[in-house]
Amino acid sequence: MIQDIAANHTSTLSNGEIPVAAGIGLRACHYPDFQIGKPPTAWVEAHSENLFAAGGLPHRVMQQVRSHYPLSLHGVGLSLGSMDPLNKEHLQQLQQVISRYEPGLVSEHLCWVASEGRYLHDLLPIPYTEDMLQHVSDRIDQVQNVLRRQILIENVSAYLHFADDQMTEWAFLNALVRRTGCGLLLDINNLYVSSRNLGIHSDEYLVNLKADAVQEIHLAGFSVETALGQEVLIDTHSQAVWPEVWSLYRRALQILGRRVPTLIEWDTNIPPLDVLLSEAQKAQYILENIHE
Description:
Number of strands: 12
Number of helices: 10
Low-confidence stretches: 1-15
CATH topology: TIM Barrel
Mean pLDDT: 92
Pfam families: MbnB_TglH_ChrH (PF05114)
Protein name: UPF0276 protein A6P07_02060
Number of domains: 1
Strand order of the largest sheet: 1-2-3-4-7-8-9-12
Family: Belongs to the UPF0276 family.
Radius of gyration: 18 Å
Strand content: 15-25%
């Protein structure tokens, strides 16, 4: 199935357009698979920061990947919710990578990852207040002006509510779209994790989210931990997509529409590439057969 989907979208390579199909996130352990062959995936997403160095293996692999597949770039380091000034060097490096590979989509997370110049290596949620909305909007405007293109903003998993919250996450995201013209990347796994941890109603979230702003969907697997005697879901991207997340994915497509590219992410305990491709096949089947 995926072989056919990938073959049907070779025409998108000239302009980098991401097809409405299932793709996979490229990780270093799978570089050899892409060096020796052309794995059957419709498109590929890479972490932007992995390409910030001037040369080396990541670029050798990416040059080969980009000659065969549409590409999306996904960032984890802009720290849009931080109080630190935007990292101009980071932004310049991102601009250079975009110019070099001409990705169809560029995305970042709605979070903060740095404080006073120290990077914390985690995607930390922000309070949904009017002040924070203005702050993040201003930073998205700066980023899009430098890059001269739209970026997508992804929802992150949450494990607590902020006492100062003035709006829901979906209302905050909708407001960002209105103020900046950014797009949205909807991570279904993150939504499910947050809904279980915080009691968020997924249907209300999906019904109210600005549907035409959603340009990409992510799917991944979570882990289950126990804290203070309570079950907590952790966004680890360490296993296959859970059945509950597949169900929420189907519901999201019914509500938002099925014309959205979908990505399988796997970041720890990464299995052989065939496992990711199998997960992508499941997503592709749902994309092709869902009834809106």
